């Protein structure tokens, strides 16, 4: 069962200590009966497995992929816009997050470090546990390195200069962005050495379980970290390793990457596991997990079309229009458009309702654009108001590996070689052969083409703003002016706002921490 790894999310590793200013008595130190104390845990391989499962648990709360992290990754890009009535959410998309109000970005920061702390407990304690199955021990350690790398990847990528905890001490000094990326790379390297290609065929309690980190996931994120730091040679080598594993392939139906119909498919390198059926109905807003928590996502209600959810995030017209620029081989519109966006197209249905009929009395909505990706909108549910989406969040797809590999080929002087890997992604949606329609592109032209290909393949998946930032478009006056014509939210951008502020709580509790520029 893919949800097996979350059966022990409520495992915690802390002592509840009762103190007063007047009493100093060892008898006041009590064990919380709901938690395992540190000194009585970490004895068996089962403890180790429960410990690593708890590290995955930090992916499920509001600060991470239940809601906040997708918002932080999507809202600033030119494929999305937000007119949320909630100022904290509105401000994310308008480059105006408030240092005095850490809602959303601060929750993410906190949860990344919760996940890092849990991973460090595994990495500190599991090496001393005697396992009957050494391969299981390596898999658990590999997952801990991967997850620490993933949480730190987000922290470094979104907050720039952050602490880099490698132990279970409370305080760690702020480090440079370069030091952060170096640790991310080190963690993914180690993870790739320890993890299996899959959990099919392994022996142990994790045998056959879906959702656990694999060698391909670690290599994919390692390549991505190299790419983000402009180490194109190592990125190229690493992405080729993923391709050569022979494990991954594109699914034939693009939309299968964003519904419950085909989760953990051949295209998925890593995804966060959500389920309506995993037990519990309470939303995981944060803090200590409780037995009533569900394993569900609030992304769907947050992004949902008007009257089916909150409509806090919508696609841009720039995205809609770019889908019109090139027809398929049969003269049709790129099918990724309809998989990504709801709009007034004859026959379009959402949640069992006809789009045109439902919005007939509201011209603004009738002529607007709404998100379709990650929506439970095929008729099984009436709306998203129960806040309980079971759609897995796909963090890394094979299509991304192919296009990032093409990018590294172009950046290392093999522009002609990039064509084949771009075409693999285009073939799925029946687009013409790029080597015929645009032959002989030079490096700069290919860079622009890759930007276009990535824009249409990954909208509303948390990649676009990362691309904008790492390509230096915000520092390029021509590109920034172009972005402003596509998405008015870029008019609010000022230098330094490509990163979020360091939360004030971190500034207060960690002396010496410096705030990011422009905040």
From TrEMBL:
Location of the protein in the cell: Cell outer membrane
Keyword terms of this UniProt record: Cell outer membrane, Membrane, Signal
Signal peptide: 1-23
SusD-like N-terminal domain mapped to chain residues: 72-227
Record domain RagB/SusD: where: 267-519
Species: Flavobacterium panici
Keyword Signal: yes
Protein's UniProt name: RagB/SusD family nutrient uptake outer membrane protein
UniProt-listed Pfam families: SusD-like_3 (PF14322), SusD_RagB (PF07980)
Tagged with keyword Signal: yes
Family from the record: Belongs to the SusD family.
Organism superkingdom: Bacteria
One Gene Ontology cellular component: cell outer membrane
